Amino acid sequence: MDNTGTPLHSVVTSYAKAPTSTITVEGVTYAYRELGPKGGIPVMFFVHLAATLDNWDPGIIDPMAKSRHVITFDQPGVGASTGQVPDTIEAMADDAYTFIKALGIDRIDVFSFSLGGMIAQDLTLKHPDLVRKLVLTGTGPRGGKDMDKVVGTTYRDILRATLTGSDPKEFLFFNRNTTGKPAAKAFIKRLQERTVNRDQPIRTRAFQTQLKAIQAFGRSAPSNLSTLTHPTLIANGDNDRMVPSVLSEDLHRRIKGSELIIYPDSGHGAIFQYHATFAPTAVEFLAN
């Protein structure tokens, strides 16, 4: 048995039961979880601002893990990983590369959301041969219009959530209407499916450093995304207040041959609101 009570010989396909492992490289201990059948190209998941291992939606991960080797991880200074959060997205991408190579992996598919999508872009631009296929959701390009406003939006919604005793993600990720509110509650409930060996929440200073890195990314000169020839799937809601929806359309224009899905009546967390539709779409897109 492992630390979640799962027999060691069985393939774990439920994220709630995926054991947490660690690997130490260059003085930093990375916390990560693996699930799904080993073999083939793994799908590496890059998570959002302030998120730890426990912030991935089982409604997205579990369908992927039925057929693919899935890896989620904490960046340095986040959750159970040691080290410091860097103040640039480029450095976060370098850390991700260090972690991936430490696992002995030479090729990955990428599933990314929000901040994770920014890191994934920089990683792929710097190491194009590492990545086979890209899924970029709720994210935008370097230098994207109004991306630097994410700081103000985030702090305002954290305050609103605090005043109502809610999880900030209910405000940040979902529309506050009759569709969004129940979707938000259902999402938060799925995040609670794991009851043992949960990750440590992000520390305030680490969160603030991530926010500054996103702001700098938004104010930087654009990257040359025309060099990306990887099959790319882009998805968002039609009302993303954190990373404006128009930036998904911008990514689509700039990454030749990319596919774009914009979900109606949804915000930053559209892929979680529409997980029953989006998960199989992503699985099919990433299929060998």
Automatic annotation (TrEMBL):
Entry-linked SUPFAM superfamilies: alpha/beta-Hydrolases
Gene3D superfamilies in the record: alpha/beta hydrolase
GO molecular function, one term: hydrolase activity
Keywords, alphabetical: Hydrolase
One Pfam family matching this protein: Abhydrolase_1
Record domain AB hydrolase-1: where: 49-272
Alphabetized PANTHER family for the sequence: AB HYDROLASE-1 DOMAIN-CONTAINING PROTEIN, HYDROLASE, ALPHA/BETA FOLD FAMILY PROTEIN
This protein's name: Putative hydrolase
Organism placement in taxonomy: Bacteria, Bacillati, Actinomycetota, Actinomycetes, Micrococcales
